[in-house]
Amino acid sequence: MTHCGTTKKHKITKYFDGRLTYNQTNDLVRLEGRELNLSPTEMVLFEYLSSHQGITRSDTTILEHLISIGGYGTEASLRVHIGNMRHKMGNGWGNMYSGVIQTEQDVGYRFAKEVDIN
After folding, report:
1. Would you kindly state where each structural domain of the chain is located, as residue ranges?
2. How far apart are CA 62 and CA 75, in angstroms?
3. DSSP state string for 39-59
4. What class, spelled out in words, does domain 3-98 have in CATH?
5. 3-class SS at 86?
6. Residue 85, H or E segment
7. Distance, CA of 113 to CA of 84 (rounded, Å)
8. Which of 89, 105, 14, 94 shows the shortest CA–CA distance to 45?
9. Phi, psi of 35 (to 5 degrees)
10. pLDDT tens for residues 16-34?
11. pTM of the prediction?
């Protein structure tokens, strides 16, 4: 409940035929019903990349976004966070979902389009 007795509406975004969901109200990402337990920085990266689905973002652009919201990072730490997210998405489900976050060599990262992992 929010103030004045109004109910806060949950905004849930679904990807890949609903197999991957993001509840923006409580920052909860689920893959086939399993919570991914993303760290705060991983959650920021997930939000940013998924909001630009199919568009490659450079390391510099991603890091500038992190800094603009009070975070910090380096290219090395970005690679680690992306790797952790891929591991969490692929852990126990094969490698199909680890491809949700894709690398474009010498450019940056992108959140896959719907057809890219099906």
Report:
1. 3-98
2. 9
3. -HHHHHHHHHHHTTTT--EEH
4. mainly alpha
5. helix
6. helix 75-90
7. 20
8. 89
9. -70, 135
10. 888 899 998 888 999 989 9
11. 0.82
